[in-house]
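target protein:
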Amino acid sequence: MQKEKKMKTIIIKTLLVLLCLSLFSCKKKIDENYRPEFIGYWFCPPGTFSEYAYDINIDKNSNGVYQMFQGWQVINTIRGIARASNKKLKIGMFHSFDITEYPNKIDTASSKVYIPIRPGLFSDTIKANWRMGLADVYYYKADY
């Protein structure tokens, strides 16, 4: 009886360790060496996919901020470590996006998308030259 209980405990602990490893090891922190194309200020203008505007700001130290706006008012903010795999972008512990289009350069001659120069400054804009799809919503960024 005692031996069976000990064996069950070992099996349960092993399964928990494997589960934790699978949840946290698939995604690596975004930095200058790993997936640098995600670094920067990404913006989804209102009217493109909804009445809201969205932005994602990821710095070179893996800090990420996701915000949703209605007009000038911030509706939702999520902060945390930005991590990426081939299929998901994750910000913080629980918020993740399916990557439907990997970040890629777009032709600025044909692009008509203008985005804010940096978060919070909606009056000054610049033409976007990067695009990324997250859950079929397109975000844009510019090289400064």
About this structure: The chain has a mean pLDDT of 83. Residues 58 and 64 are 4 Å apart (CA to CA). The chain is about 15% helix and 45% strand. The first strand starts at residue 28 and ends at 29.
